[in-house]
Amino acid sequence: MAASERKRPWYLLLSLLAALAYGVNGAHGGWTTVTLYRERIDASMAGQGIADENDRATVVARAEAYVQALDAAKSRGWPLGVATLLLGVAILFFSIRALGGNGGARAALVQLLVVQAGVNASSYWLLRDVRYAELRWLEGRHAADSHERVPEEMLHAVASVALGLQTLGSALMIIGLTRRRSRDFFDAAAPAVGER
């Protein structure tokens, strides 16, 4: 079967494009975490641009609490950040290869997505204190800018919803990559790729 005759299922294309975005997001998130541990954060800069003295003091105090939580969690956060960075780059690489019709890349991508979902869940549980301190800092900044407070329950729900959406996204990508028509597409692509 010629390469031009192969028809890629729509859900496979969506899964591969989502995996590309997931890889970029994972690499960015991992790089951000690694950078946070490599460069010192000046918590006093968090209050810049806030006119009200009390609001500024609240934001700076919350930023300092975030930096302290980040430092206390370094033994957990640094390895998880590096893992997220490496997995994000690998997912991006294998997504591009799978878009080119490489069946081996599809199989590797499925495994990487499962591992990344596990790392995301581990980060959720192991870095709860850091995440909560960051959300309190961001909520303080938001309150200083708009003078609207975010309920405490909402702060806790944000991270849970984010984890749920990431897990659902991973599951949908894996389903799209492992369906019969997707596997058949890559099986048909193998001879065409080998002929080039």
Major pleated sheet: none
Total count of domains = 1
End-to-end distance, in Å?
13 Å
Q: Unreliable segments (pLDDT under 50, ≥5 consecutive)?
A: none
Tell the overall outline. elongated
Oligomer: single chain
Number of helices: 7
Q: Summarize the amount of helix as a percent range.
A: over 70%
Mean pLDDT: 87
Category from helices, strands and their pairing: mainly alpha
Q: Into which percentage range does the β-strand content fall? A: under 5%
Number of strand segments: 0
Report the order of strands and helices.
HHHHHHH
Overall radius of gyration: 21 Å
Describe, in plain words, how this protein is organized in 3D.
- By secondary structure, the chain is mainly alpha-helical.
- It is 82% helix and 0% strand.
- The longest helix has 29 residues, at 10-38.
- The model has no long low-confidence stretch (mean pLDDT 87).
Question: Would you kindly provide a brief summary of this structure?
Answer:
This protein is an all-alpha fold and 196 residues long. The chain has helices spanning 10-38, 53-72, 74-99, 103-126, 128-146, 152-178, 180-195.
